Every structure is written in structure tokens, then in C-alpha cells.
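Explain this one:

_____
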Amino acid sequence: MKLYLAGPDVFRPDAQAWAEEARRLCAAAGHAALVPLDGVETTAPGIYRANIALIHEADAVLANLNPFRGCEPDSGTCVEVGFALALGKPVIGYLESNETTVARVARFSGQPLEIRAGRPVDRDGLHVEDFGLPLNLMLAVPATVVVGTLREAIGQLDSVCLGDSARPA
């Protein structure tokens, strides 16, 4: 399969080394990695179009959904995941931890969350989604989420793509 690798890894100082390792992991499992870094585009619109084209080409998307520059996943990665889901492509997201959204928001704020009217609120007084999920429900419900790294996400491909796991329609 062709696997689009979504995530903020393209911003790492060692992004090229990360991409080589990602390609190696995919190839070892018999798959081809579609890595956004492989494009030649240098403008924002060009990069956007190139990444969208790669998602169209992909059979599935593997997405690094770890917190990035805050307590939520990278916003660009979320767009890529949503686009892939809209195309009906399987998405496997991976996280270092199964920490719930409530626990993560509390950890990032450095204090326990206040409860108002039976619901947790953040330091700005905004409600925090409390479904016991490690991500916002709009990611956690339609995507398969695994705890681990890209390696573990690749390991879930057969069960997800062959229909062995329950996925919402």
C-alpha cells in the first residue's frame, strides 16, 4: 500500500533522517511511504496542493497525533486527516500516551481542572471534552488510534484495512 505520513515530523531539525527511517519502516512492512518532504514545492499554496495530491494517491494515512506546540495535534495534520476521512481512506493515528484530553489539558495548564456544572473547564473557563478519549472525538472516533510510534501504526494496517476492526461509517 501507499501510505501518506501526516504529522509535524516535517518540522523536526532531523526531518530528513526521520523521513529515511519512516521510509525504511514502511518498506520493511511491504509498503511505500508518501512523505510530504519529498515534494519540490516551496510556496504555501504549492505545498498544500502537493500534499493533497499525495493524500489522493495514498491507500491509507498514518498520522502523528501527538501534541504539537500545545496540548492538541498539529492543525495541518488534522486537516490532512479530515481530508483523508472525507475521501473514505483509512486513517491510523498514533500517540505516545493514551492520556485523556482532560488529563492532558490539566497537565499543560499545570493545575487540576475546575468542575463547573459537572463539567471540567480549562483555565480560560472553556469546557473540556470529557469522553475519556485521548483526542477530540472528531479525531478519536473515525480514526484508529494506537498508542506507540509509526512502527505500531504500520502494525495496525492489516486489521484496519482488511476490516478486522470496527470503524464507523
Q: What stands out?
A: The longest helix spans residues 15-28. Strands lie at 2-6, 32-34, 60-64, 91-95, 114-116, 119-121, 144-147. The radius of gyration is 17 Å. The longest strand covers residues 2-6.
